[in-house]
Amino acid sequence: PTFGTVSPASVHPRQFQYTLDNDVLTLEQRKFYEDNGFLVIKNLISDADIQRFRDEFEKICRKEVKPPGITIMRDVNILKSEHTISEKVISKVQDFQEDEELFRYCTLPEILKYVECFTGPNIMAMHTMLINKPPDTGKKTSRHPLHQDLHYFPFRPSDRIVAAWTAMEHIDRNNGCLVVLPGTHKSSLKPHDYPQWEGGVNLMFHGIQDYEQENNRVHLVMEKGDTVFFHPLLVHGSGRNRTQGFRKAISCHYASANCHYIDVKGTTQEGIEKEVLKVADKFGLTEDVSLKDIWKFRARLVKGERINL
Ligand SMILES: O=C(O)CCC(=O)C(=O)O
């Protein structure tokens, strides 16, 4: 017997889980993201914009501008050696939400148009980075171990979170391109820790300890301005920079403002919470600050309405 009408959704398995209905992605692009957990859009960001981000990064390195809240990171090995030119010692700047020039990247309409396909119309910029991968010193510390970004994030659901990562120059295996394990966004969050690398490992560069070696890796060769959007459970990392140049990319993680914070106590993310709070403590933040408070403070609305995050 049948009771009332049967909706097509209850007959067919849900076709799309990771993307929302939109008129931006072609069906082919949508299916590609659903199956693989990433999507490269060629030539999305103009040379002029990339030049502006590069100029601002250099100003930050020269300490001509000091945006509040920014985190400046160095490679473990370069940290130990002497360098006078400051752009050569900074491997990454994070949390540039207060820097008007760099934060423009997170608000570019050409980026948000794609982001909305994954997050929906209420969009928060949660995490910002400009990565300046230095020439490897021979200790292989310029590598970024394979990881899932969700390990760092105390908010869910994961399907409404997406990263945008833009190549600021030609990037291939020589200067350390992104490497992704297609389809791993369908797996769960794995335990992460510091890899046991002989040459040392950079602060917060956690990796997955037990990923399946046989998983096929895809090296994303990208041109200046190309942008990859990827799911926070997609296993990815980047290789050693074998050139003498500083490989640059700019990136923002977005989430739907409808996402909610979670308590990471008792989960595999407990360790990263402790580590982040320890760093915050060094900067004089009081003891009762939680991971959620830190994220809430940094998060910025870039489109629509600020709801939970
Ligand atoms: O740009 C890179 O080398 C990789 C960056 C990355 O995966 C990260 O910082 O989470």
UniProtKB/TrEMBL annotation:
Keyword field contains DNA damage: no
Known EC number: 1.14.11.18
Cofactor(s) for this UniProt protein: L-ascorbate; ATP; Fe cation
Pathway in which the depicted protein is active: Lipid metabolism; fatty acid metabolism
UniProt xrefs under Gene3D superfamilies: q2cbj1_9rhob like domain
Reaction it catalyzes: 3-methylnonanoyl-CoA + 2-oxoglutarate + O2 = 2-hydroxy-3-methylnonanoyl-CoA + succinate + CO2; octanoyl-CoA + 2-oxoglutarate + O2 = 2-hydroxyoctanoyl-CoA + succinate + CO2; phytanoyl-CoA + 2-oxoglutarate + O2 = 2-hydroxyphytanoyl-CoA + succinate + CO2; 3-methylundecanoyl-CoA + 2-oxoglutarate + O2 = 2-hydroxy-3-methylundecanoyl-CoA + succinate + CO2
Enzyme class: oxidoreductase
SUPFAM superfamilies associated with the record: Clavaminate synthase-like
Keyword field: Dioxygenase, Iron, Metal-binding, Oxidoreductase, Vitamin C
Name of the protein this chain belongs to: Phytanoyl-CoA dioxygenase, peroxisomal
Gene Ontology MF annotations: ferrous iron binding; L-ascorbic acid binding; phytanoyl-CoA dioxygenase activity
Any single biological process term in GO: methyl-branched fatty acid metabolic process
A Pfam family matched in the record: PhyH
GO cellular component, one term: 9+0 non-motile cilium
UniProt record similarity statement: Belongs to the PhyH family.
